[in-house]
Amino acid sequence: MRPSQPLLPRFLSPSRRLRGTNLKGFDSLLRYSICIIGFFIATFSLYSTLNLHGEKNLGNGRLNGDSELPKVTIFSAPRPLISSNGSDLTWARQKLAVRSWLALSDNVDVVLFGRHPSIVELKEGYSSRVTIEPSIDFTFLGTPFFHSMVARAQSTASDISMLIDSETVLFPEIFNAITSIQKLDKDWFVFSFTPNILNFAYQLAGSGHSWFGQDGRMIESNKLQEALFKQSEVRNCSERLLIVWNNLKLPLFHGVMPPFMYGKGFYELWLINEILSSEIRTVFDASNLNLSLYPENLGTLSSMFSEDYSTWSKRTWEYHTNLRVAQSYGLLFFQKTFLSNAPYEIVNSLGQYYFLNEEKGHILAPGTNRKKEILNSLGCHKERNKCSLWQFDNLTLGMPAQIEYKYTLERILQTVSDENKTVILGISGESYRDMLMSWVCRLRNLGITNFIVYALDPETYEFSLLQGLPVFMDTKSPKNISFDDCHFGTECFQRVTKVKSRMVLKILKLGYNVLLSDIDVYWFQNPLPYLSSFGPGVLGAQSDEYNETLPINLPRRLNSGFYFAQSDPITIAAIELVVKHASSSNLSEQPSFYDTLCGEGGANRVGDNRCVERRTNLTVVLLDRDLFPNGAYKGIWEKRDIRSVCANLGCFVLHNNWISGRKRKLERQMASGLWDYDPTLRMCIQNWSNFEVLSDHSY
Fold first, then answer.
1. Residue 379 CB burial class (10 angstroms; 0-12, 13-18, ≥19)
2. In this model, does residue 384 exceed pLDDT 80?
3. Which of 80, 270, 343, 550 could cross-link with 283 by S-S, CB 3.0 to 4.6 Å?
4. What is the pLDDT of residues 313-328, one digit of tens each?
């Protein structure tokens, strides 16, 4: 419950507080004066005690490798840069922010999340202390996932991790506060809302100790910090949150963080609420200290946004997705309101820090026995900062969010297709959604982003939206798809497979090449350069023949679960024939592919690995089984080390077919180690202990 009075003190003059006081208020004035005197006596006493105990104040300057200071890694997800000539405001803010972080101490390193090549520019000149980390989860639009960012920050070897907005400037005082909290010998979590400064006409000096204004005058960091928050317009504190925590082996809260999209709202308050409620860590609100700022304007560079970030972000489907996630997971699913507990709030007086929780009547401060007296003194005179957690008090989530996703198939194709107008098509229903995500994660790990997902049911569609996938549905999708009984040979399987060729035909007619890949196909390397080399009028398809001594184009051995079709008149005409044949067949789509393209009984076979469809003159190439093995070829799935076997063969992919039943298929793939998704954490599996740095040539 919110306290009846604001918690955080702001030391104002008596004339400002008691303006209009009459004689009847003399007793109040006297009590006020006694309270202020008592506070300063208590503060001076604690200040002296802490200095006798060797408390270190970090001052204004940069710290040089003090072994007593904690090792801190700052994590951030920069926005892709439009230009680097100084005219782009986002670029200028991010460069300034990174410089301010590195100026804090030699004990600070920076990790930047991203895959866009422009991010390399942010590390120029800081190669040893700034690392670019591409190995987290992103949406198809390039938005990073917050839960993946936090998990990566948890994996660092530093003493302390910090997550911060890429355009947030830090003041040296943050290191003072962190060091003071660390001395409490607790497992802790700190958050601070970053205020927006409307006009910020300063640049960081080369040493990082001071700033200089447009008039060329130098000003120390603490003086600038004090002046800014007394004189500048401060607004919109809710969208940029700074979080810091220690003891990275300890979880932040009970439970698992759902897949929030970074920068799209709600995850900040959701996380704070979960941590406060779990009571695993002592939670501190440092918003009152003004440790950071977001510069809307930098001198002559003006903000590109004429309205608050909080306004335009709510117009996106990603915002509504985050709202749906916040409503569906964690304690908010049950209580629907934020802030069931209060954090400790941090106060800085005369260079010393007090940690207050007035709701509990507690004060945390090292080296003193006079905590009650200090708490009473600090409680005499308070005024809460605008950027306080209590700005969200009594906020409710309201009705369940409707995700307004307006990406049509045409728009998705325009967004994700590669330079050759090629897309990879995966198709899935609810029963295979974990396998879908393993397939997606594997493509992402290979750096492949030009894939799209056709959802067979509304459940898979919404799940894919929450996972940030480029997903679409079709009004002609089959209905009543069985969860466990939709494998090869079943009536459900027959209905599902026939939609694949129809969807491929639709995409081909829109002018895009299609590599259709069943989601049970595991990818070792990208086959598109190889498949594209066949040229127009050629369709490359996997062979289902398992006998190593027989031709691979024998009747009914064309696998319609992996093939590459180019958008040319010959191929489109041939696929139209396949769709027409399948629509009148009582079998699955696969026999229609072979009988149409290779002729019934193999009448159109050419050699041991080809067919030619006589009406359209389309050439079908059955792919080399060493490069594209099916599930029964050479008993690969029964080998102990499948990766080594496929490395020796040169496999591009390996199909997990020739096995009956959903459970058996899943068990075989997961047991083999060819699995790239953690369904419990809702994240792709990463190897962060040996992550590779993104260089100028590896994006």
1. middle
2. no
3. 343
4. 445 788 889 888 988 8
